[in-house]
């Protein structure tokens, strides 16, 4: 074997993929190829490794998380690191840990890497390095994939293989491709004079370099406000211009909008301290540089059919016609902070990787299953997959895509390895408890609200149910094929939602009486709260397409809102649990209450059909053992009658049967009461 090939094999000895030679061209084969060792790439690698699959991660840098080595430029993350919640439940705590990836290793919780509520980006770099190293993930560093194409093959999993080529012209072949490169190509707007604009990715981060200067910032996202915040105290003034109005995350409930940590410019603007915000289409702008190096803002149409080389004095500026034109003052610097977009350049046309439409054009087009619309077997993970829930949920951020990545893994396990979506079967008596437990603990439901949902599949005659966690609701109609589970008897869908008209850039989310406190008005809840949809059969693709605007699901046969709670603690017996149980009972036409053994004994003699709790517990001699203390507590609560022991008198011992019948009839008359009095109409448990 040639020395070069031997060296190549030695360098890749850690990987389970095999070297193959076809028509003289060598390539390495893996079942799964992941492009990018950022957070989503490492998360996918973890799940594949836990499942024992053949995979490799390609990373162009020498270490994972290279994006965070540079961004954000001013090194302050806006993902919260809440180290204390008052709870010891690890699943609940992930609701407020926006940086940790999912793993079994308790050492890999981000709170061990930073004590800051808004951590430094360098802590994220260290965290991702440890995540890859401690879990021994198979990452091939210094490997930049420069071209991806398809090779048709009927024997392949998806009818084709993916062929990848790196910067050294080494070839790789895989059956499934997971793209986790994120969005890292800067958004650039071209207009006359755009060559004078500095990019966020290269502009100085030293405030002293801006001392006494006048600055114009193009953009209105967190990177723009982050840049402004850094130089706010040293500049003459800062103006910010963008096509859309400012969107505050507390109003839109979208974490990608402007966060409070960066919004100091809003104070100085509204409190008349020279800084200001403007709206306008950047493509209509033009920048002219004068002899002193000052930058003047004008409009593109003023420059049409004019020779700009003659100098600024011969060019008409807006202030020549409108003397109070807002940006008439010249600027020392103009900075572009317009975010990033997906890199489409490395994908051959055969993959049909197309950009989205409208405000989603920076992302590739994908299905709600995160699979490319153009190519089967190509999945997009992480930030680049945010088109599924753009401006709706957290799928573009670590605390969201760690769950969508797990969902993609489960879809792949079912499709390629025959491993059904994980589920647990419970008796129907545990239905209320199971839902209450999940809505109070589950972090995936909480972070990916309106996108991921728990699915409850009912068994025949509603005697039991099968519980599936965090399934993408956008592919609910495909549930049976995507999960390997059957839904012939109806289902419940448990999801988290905000109020329909509560979120928006123009909404006042602090108005009086903004919260609902009573269960009968739960459907008017504004803040994030659980919603349970009931379907007698699985919705169809057609019904999914025709669902009402802004509804995550089509119209159900019944729906129940659990009233919002200030503490996000849905355990109140009367406000939360009782209405939920009655909703479930109405849907199933059954009694989901728990009963004492005495009540079940009475039911056995007075009813044709026992409640499920009695059938599954009492009749099978299961349940809590009785005790005098428990009986006395039930009597004091009015749940059981107090049948006092008979006071035997005379010469006969208490256990003698002689005369016992006459004694009972004479001394201990059992009162005749209606059935509903003997079995208290209150809930027993």
From TrEMBL:
The UniProt record lists the keyword Flavoprotein: yes
Keywords, in A-Z order: Endoplasmic reticulum, FAD, Flavoprotein, Glycoprotein, Oxidoreductase, Signal
UniProt biased composition (Basic and acidic residues): 654-666
A Gene Ontology molecular function term of the record: monooxygenase activity
Gene3D superfamilies: FAD/NAD(P)-binding domain
Cofactor: FAD
Record-given protein name: FAD-dependent oxidoreductase domain-containing protein 2
Organism encoding this protein: Buteo japonicus
